[in-house]
Amino acid sequence: MKRAVTTLALAAAVAFAASAASAQSLNAIKSRGILNCGANGTLGGFGLPDAQGNWTGLDVDFCRALAAAIFNDPAKVKFVALTAKDRFTALQSGDVDVLARNTTWTSSRDTSLGLNFTAVNYYDGQGFLVRKALKVNSALELNDAAVCVQQGTTTELNLADYFRANKMKLKTVTFASADEAIKAYDSGRCDAFTTDASGLYAERLRLAKSDDHIVLPEIISKEPLGPSVRHGDDQWFDIVKWTHYAMLTAEELGVTKANVDEQMKSANPDVKRLLGTEGNYGEQLGLTKDWAYRIVKHVGNYGEVFEKNVGQGSPLKIARGVNALWTKGGLQYAPPIR
Amino acid sequence: MSIAQEGGPPKVALIYDPKVRSIAYQVVLVAIILFLAYSAVRNAADNLARAKIASGFGFWNQTAGFDISQTLIEYSAQGGTYGRAFWVGLLNTLLVAAIGIVLATIVGFMVGIARLSRNWLIGRLAGGYVELIRNVPLLLQLLFWYNAVLKALPDLRDSWTVFGNVYLNNRGFFAPYPIFGEGIGLVAAAFVLGVAGAIAFRIWARRRQERTGEQAPVGLVALALIVGLPLIAFFIAGMPATLEYPEKGRFNIRGGLEILPEFVALLIGLVLYTGAFIAEVVRAGIMAVSKGQTEAAGALGLRAGQTLKLVVIPQAMRVIIPPLTNQYLNLTKNSSLAVFVGYPDLVQIFTGTVLNQTGQAVEVVMITMAVYLTISLVTSMAMNWYNARIALVER
Ligand SMILES: N[C@@H](CCC(=O)N[C@@H](CS)C(=O)NCC(=O)O)C(=O)O
Hints:
The complex is a heterodimer of chains A (about 350) and B (about 400).
Chain A: H1 2-16, H2 25-32, E1 35-39, E2 48-49, E3 55-56, H3 58-71, E4 77-81, H4 87-92, E5 98-99, H5 107-111, E6 115-117, E7 122-124, E8 126-131, E9 145-150, H6 154-165, E10 170-175, H7 178-186, E11 192-196, H8 197-204, E12 213-215, E13 223-225, E14 228-230, H9 234-253, H10 260-263, H11 269-275, H12 281-285, H13 291-298, H14 302-309
Parallel strand pairs in A: 1-4, 1-5, 9-10, 9-11
Antiparallel strand pairs in A: 2-3, 6-14, 7-13, 8-11, 8-12
Helix pairs in contact in A: 3-9, 3-13
Chain B: H1 18-50, H2 82-115, H3 120-134, H4 138-152, E1 160-162, E2 166-169, E3 172-175, E4 177-180, H5 184-212, H6 218-236, E5 241-244, E6 247-248, E7 253-254, E8 257-259, H7 261-287, H8 291-299, H9 304-334, H10 346-358, H11 361-390
Helix pairs in contact in B: 2-3, 2-7, 2-10, 3-7, 4-7, 5-6, 7-9, 8-9, 9-11, 10-11
Bound molecules: glutathione.
């Protein structure tokens, strides 16, 4: 019921609110003094508050980087926990300034939902989690299986598509949140649980006996996850997009949280342009010259944030894989800052 | 005293005429409301257009592409449209609401009457049930029942089974299900005839009892007509039905009748919860019937059961019906908690998945609200009609 009410309230907000889209987001955020960031409230590695209300995660740190760039203070973020189902309405109605909630970039979301995806901060794909006892080695053996899935995700469609394409029968059991879906799977209601592979690693840790379960090798979809903003404010769109690119560029140039002060003295022109010791690229964005310095100083570069939240420094231990820099054989590639 | 009335009502200026005034006020009020509604719709459309968010009802005929676990009508991920998914969800909501209302009424009446029982233990048990259930949030109860149902049932491999073709496990309850062939029309006709016959017999028996005081075995005759006639027709038509048996595969059981654990958990939760409220309504209704009525019935020599059935309940019904209607509406609306236990009701399918895939929050939420409003109004109307029928007829 609570969720129905939020949906309703958000829908009403769309109906009555003076058009939020055309307002200058940056000015609004500055005068408000805080950034409203739509985040995942239950997904370890991406967005999760602890008992004290301290948020951690890749997407969470992305919002902190934005706040650092705008306010020179990564703490000036209010995180709004959003379910898969409510997230777009929250962004559309102006409840949040940016949606960084492991959200897949698709054409329809980019167009008919009135959103703009800014960049991909995690390349993902959908996978399956099954019990080892089932002795299933491939998703193609799942004919006739019951699969628990979370509503409001791209996952639901991919699942039906994959089974149909491989002429397999399927029984889907759909739940409002990942929490309920994984619990039902754990109690034996379903043979498999499916979601983004990153999510599978996170959810597996919540199972009663996580060692009794394996992630199947098949990745059945492309899930480029990235932050999105509303249509209609190009300046804000640019800021969000280039925040991600600044973090990538910093990694590429070897600028880290630890050495960024030293790097301010660097003679490398690329580093100088990134950190604002040369040129006024930050001002062109509507920010300050040292916007990228602030991001790296307070939050870190992309590689650092990745390792800390989902990589070797985290319980998830996800390998960089396709999320490595393009120079290391991955897909993460930032256009030049100049 | 009556001077003013002598020449008919005094002529007053129109604006002072209370009747004209009240009509004028109402017209103005309606105009304001219409204007507000109109500007809300305009504003919404403008905002959506400016933010370039899709609007309109074009999505209705687009392919849905997602799978649904319980479909009372034909539906498939590739063939089904969003519109079809809407109907699937609506029927699932109506199914759980209708069965829930019937069962909750039975539970409520039993517990309500039990609470007034002179037997100390029965009275206390009923009272404890009502207090416990009414004071725990429904959502918690649903989650409890869902987990309890799942935990209590065995895995597919260790299914409980009878005759090798009825299965019970944590995937659901599976049983053979009849598929009807040609000639089933005869059986249906016999059934209709049986029901009509039973009603006619009851009316006849009533009249005779009023005239002569003789009673007739209405229940038995009705049973014979309603069950017996179709049965005879079934054999005459050459048994035009085959059973479809559930078949056990590697992962699941397919075919035949399938009842999902999600449905059962939601139903149990709604029935027990609403049943507790109905019990209180029934208890209040019975207590509102004056004690003299029971005593008079006793003086006439009616037994306790007869007193309850013939004297107390009919009078209590007049007090019970209006709040009972509320409980029926509550049950229907509470069924929208289905999504938490994975049951595909209207809210789960339509304001959940369809809304998310189309992104058309305004349209989808509006349609859903209209549906619940309609269900509520129809339920109220039916109950009001029933209430008027049983109301005290003053002679
Ligand atoms: N990337 C997909 C799925 C996003 C998603 O909601 N994932 C799930 C599982 S990884 C999740 O975050 N669940 C947490 C929750 O909603 O509580 C999408 O954008 O639709």
